[in-house]
Design goal:
622 residues; alpha/beta; 12 strands; 61% helix; 11% strand
Length: 622
């Protein structure tokens, strides 16, 4: 069952918390605020009422005092003033709106109003009688007013008590409500804390736990444990991330296994290269030595030249395979993009021929100097050509692949075109994404991505180019760099030309007699004095007797290899160590043997033409 997605779950938790908070607010709004308003209205109206009653009480008391003085003195002027004051206060509390008077206080207020009205009438009569000189009747009315004043005070006190009772009742209701609200708040707080705790538990189950497992998985991958797999607790966003992680580790594991097999194959090829290149070198040396004989029949000469060409072709192909299986390391340097393209084509061409693919290479004349790591650039070309190969194999014959180089906008560009089914518009934006593949055979989908990364490391680019022609077109380009100004490559000296090697003393060290003998014979013919040694120990013995002008040694030999011999020479004869040339069937053997500081120009790759060998010897001694 598919779990709720985290985004939906988060919205639900947010809604519940919002409902809880807003519920408490609405409860207080509808439960507390009306009671507070009621209490406020009651106290406010009572305050106004009691203030008016107190004012009226003071005025009636003042009028009663004035009436007493009028009766006692019989002063007509005072009586006139009393009557004038009575005309301004014909009513007391009766002008207050009845709605503003609390229900429990309305009866006492009505009685107080009636008593106040009766007092005003009585005071008016007392003033009139005093003006008329009837003091005895005025005194009798004053006694009645005194009784009314006592009753007014009693009613006033009763109104105060009833008003306070009403306020206390509202206050009690408010207090009871406050207890209810407090209980409700406690319940709300418990519910909110429960929701928060549930949210934390849910986050721990759905987010924190899987993220910790994912982090542990990443740490395991960092330590090289590519077999790690993280269990997805739910099919949500985290589960999708975990699924992608497991897919990535699966691809990396497959990739590592392939790389391991490739590295093992590279080591195997490196060993085989030496063994294969030795007989190839022997074939080349024997053939070239025979070609130097005068009077050789033309047919034999043609056969020997063909033999040499095929031996060189086999050696070149073998070196290309070795170079491709070695990791592309080292700093970027000027390389010829035309040469890289040709080497990559030579590596894949035999596959094209086996599958009936018609291929064509069109290289721009001259050199295309760019900056990069040659092996990496070659890998990018092989990836692109392999991608085209896969594309054309999805259609019937004729199948064609064309590799062209050209210069455009100051850039060295290589274009790979095939007549395969092409690239649908819907996936063009995904072509260079890692792990994207349209192949049904479970390929990793890293070829185009890796090619783009390699090109971008050298400030270049790998891109798809849309075309109206059938098939697909991919381009790799790098900025052109100015010519380095280096001297032109030294042309091999053909046998018999120039001064040769007259008078030079050369120590030739190789464990293969079939290689050593033809080379020694050729060098002797060119005028050199050659001494031979079958391994490093024999070479050291020879060096103890006589120091030669140059040492030519194989790299890989039993008992003592060429590097060990070179180290011994550095200790015993450092000046001679600078005049050592190495023969090798694998140009990467120097790094494997721990002598990566030796420049590549001192390593001669088997099979090498003897004329080229002579030129390199002379160049080393110049």
């Amino acid at each position: 069952m598919r779990a709720l997605r985290l985004r939906t779950l988060a919205w639900i938790m947010f809604a519940l918390i919002l409902l809880s908070v807003s519920g408490a607010g609405f409860y207080g709004w509808f439960k507390i605020l009306p009671k507070i308003g009621q209490l406020s209205a009651a106290t406010s109206s009572l305050g106004r009422l009691y203030g008016r009653l107190a004012e009226d009480d003071r005025w009636l008391t003042s009028a009663y005092t004035s009436a007493t003085r009028v009766v006692a003195s019989g002063d007509a002027a005072a009586a006139a003033r009393l009557r004038a004051s009575l005309t301004n206060r014909d009513r007391l509390v009766g002008d207050l709106p009845l709605a503003d008077v609390p229900r429990g206080v309305r009866v006492p207020i009505a009685r107080a109003e009636d008593l106040a009205a009766r007092l005003i009438v009585t005071f008016d009569e007392i003033a009139s009688l005093a003006e008329a000189g009837d003091r005895a009747e005025a005194a009798r009315l004053l006694a009645g007013a005194d009784s009314l004043m006592g009753r007014f005070d009693a009613v006033f006190a009763d109104a105060l008590v009833r008003g306070l009772d009403d306020v206390l009742e509202v206050s009690g209701t408010l207090q009871a409500t406050s207890h209810e609200v407090l209980l409700t708040f406690v319940i709300w707080l418990i519910v909110t804390l429960t929701l928060a705790f549930s949210a934390l538990v849910l986050i721990g189950q759905r987010v924190t736990g899987p993220m910790n497992a994912l982090r542990q998985g990443l740490e395991d991958v960092e330590r090289g444990q590519l077999s790690v797999a993280v269990a997805a607790p739910a099919q949500d966003e985290i589960g999708e991330v975990v699924g992608h992680f497991n897919q990535m580790t699966s691809v990396l594991r497959d990739r590592a296994e392939r790389q391991g097999r490739l590295a093992a194959a590279g080591e195997l090829i490196a060993g085989v290269a030496h063994e294969v290149n030795n007989p190839l070198m022997a074939i080349v040396a024997l053939a070239e030595t025979r070609l130097a004989d005068a009077g050789l029949p033309g047919a034999v000469r043609t056969d020997l030249e063909s033999m040499m060409g095929e031996a060189h072709r086999a050696g070149h192909l073998l070196q290309g395979i070795i170079r491709f299986t070695r990791p592309g390391t080292g700093p970027s340097r000027p390389v010829d993009l035309n040469e890289v393209a040709r080497d990559a084509w030579d590596l894949v061409w035999f596959q094209f021929k086996a599958d009936g693919v018609l291929g064509r290479v069109e290289l721009v004349p001259g050199k295309l100097p760019v900056i990069g790591v040659e092996q990496k650039l070659e890998q990018a070309f092989v990836n692109m050509l392999g991608n085209a190969h896969q594309a054309v194999m999805r259609r019937g014959p004729p199948r064609t692949i064309v590799l062209r180089t050209l210069v455009e906008d100051g850039r060295a560009t290589a274009v790979v075109t095939d007549n395969g089914p092409g690239v649908p518009d819907s996936i063009r934006d995904q072509l260079f994404r890692p792990f994207f593949s349209t192949q049904p055979d479970g390929r990793a989908g890293l070829g185009l991505y890796t090619s783009r990364v390699i090109l971008r490391e050298s400030r270049g680019e790998a891109e798809y180019r849309a075309s109206t022609e059938p098939g697909a077109t991919f381009a790799l380009w790098l900025p052109l760099v100015p010519a380095t100004g280096q001297a032109a490559d030294r042309a091999p000296r053909p046998p018999g030309s120039g001064r040769g090697l007259e008078g030079l003393s050369i120590l030739l060290v190789d464990d293969e007699p079939t290689v050593r003998k033809p080379i020694a014979k050729f060098l002797t013919r060119r005028g050199a004095v050659v001494r031979e040694a079958g391994d490093g120990h024999a070479a050291l013995d020879a060096l103890a007797e006589e120091e030669p002008d140059l040492v030519l040694t194989d790299l890989r030999m039993p008992t003592m290899d060429g590097i060990t011999l070179y180290r011994e020479m550095q200790l015993r004869r450092p000046s001679l160590a600078r005049r050592v040339l190495f023969l090798s069937g694998d140009v990467a053997q120097l790094a494997a043997l721990g002598a990566s500081e030796i420049e590549a120009g001192r390593v001669l790759t088997k099979p090498i033409e003897l004329a080229e060998l002579e030129a390199r010897i002379l160049a080393q001694l110049d």
